[in-house]
Amino acid sequence: MVEGISQLLTANGRKADAVLRRVWDETSPDSDGNPNSSLVTNLTYTQALILLGIPEEERGEFIAEHDVESMTKLELQQAVKDREQAIQEKKDLQKNLNVKSSELAQLTTQTKSLEQTFLALMMWIRYLMNSCTKDC
């Protein structure tokens, strides 16, 4: 795959060149000859390109959880889409949880305030009842 990308880098326009350069940078070996990537080196160009849509720090985990090498383009695209949807749903749930936590905190504060008011009223009623029984 690396050799093919190297050849494509010189044969394409600027936009494609930038994409190909990114694939090259993330798949080419480092100075010691070790793979410089969380991308598996025996992926197709299309698979590698699709995987670039996943942040580098999360890519290895995604590859470990999925049999990426045997997936078709559509299967891989769907898996990435499902991942993005799950991430968005998690963010939405976290946002809802934060809102509910805030609402709960407000209700707790209101409840404490009402309890204090209730206790003060009860003390006032007792005072009035005691006053009434002495004076009545």
Question: How would you explain this protein's 3D organization?
Answer:
The chain is mainly α. The chain folds into two domains: 1-71, no CATH class; 72-136. Helices cover 76% and strands 0% of the residues. The protein contains five helices and no strands. α1 (2-11) packs antiparallel against α2 and α3 (45-51) runs parallel beside α5. It is rod-shaped, with a radius of gyration of 32 Å. The mean pLDDT is 82.
> How much beta, percentage-wise?
under 5%
Mean pLDDT: 82
* Count of extended strands: 0
Structural class estimated from helices and strands:
mainly alpha
Q: How do the strands and helices of this protein lay out in sequence?
A:
Blueprint: H1 2-11, H2 14-27, H3 45-51, H4 56-65, H5 73-135
Task: Throw out a few tags for this protein.
mainly alpha, single chain, 136 residues, 2 domains
